[in-house]
Amino acid sequence: MVVAPNPSGVPVVASFITGTSETTYASGKKDSNTFSCANWSTEHSSIFKAEGACTFTNQNGDKASIVSGCDYTNKDQTESDCWGGLMGLTGSITGKTGTMAWHSVVNPDGKTGSAAGTGQWN
Questions:
Q1: Is 9 within a domain?
Q2: Angstrom distance (rounded) from CA 87 to CA 107
Q3: Structural domain of residue 43, as residue ranges?
Q4: Given phi > 0 = left and psi -120 to 50 = alpha, else beta, which region is 110?
Q5: Closest Cα to residue 58, out of 31, 18, 96?
Q6: In this structure, is residue 5 part of a structural domain?
Q7: Residue 2 lies in a domain
């Protein structure tokens, strides 16, 4: 984690995470991926409370990025509603774009969590 002082008096807090996740599609198909993300708090002028950028690679080798914005939905900031833009980087999704929306929950351990939402490639 990085905490950077800011002239506004509200520091920007950034965190970095890597890991694996499992996706279950509406059809019931399951996939897993590896990901690398950076997330940071925003200025008061932003429409979001946090923003982030991730890249992920699915089991089949397809790689994509997500650039997102989130708003916390509870006082402890362990739950949030997020919206993001997708961009396909390699494999069958190269050059494709898309959108996602999801609700995420961080578990008490601060290291694991879950998310449920929807998205689609254009």
A1: no
A2: 28
A3: 15-112
A4: left
A5: 31
A6: no
A7: no
Q: Is residue 44 part of a domain?
A: yes
pLDDT tens series, the chain, 122 aa: 899 998 888 888 999 999 999 988 889 999 999 999 999 999 777 899 999 999 999 999 999 999 999 999 999 999 999 999 999 999 999 999 999 999 999 999 988 899 999 999 99
pTM of the model: 0.85
The number of domains in the chain is: 1
What burial letters (b/e) apply to 59-86, b meaning 16+ CB within 10 Å?
Answer: eeebbbebebbbeeeeeeeeebebbbeb
Residue 33 carries which side chain, given as an amino acid letter?
N
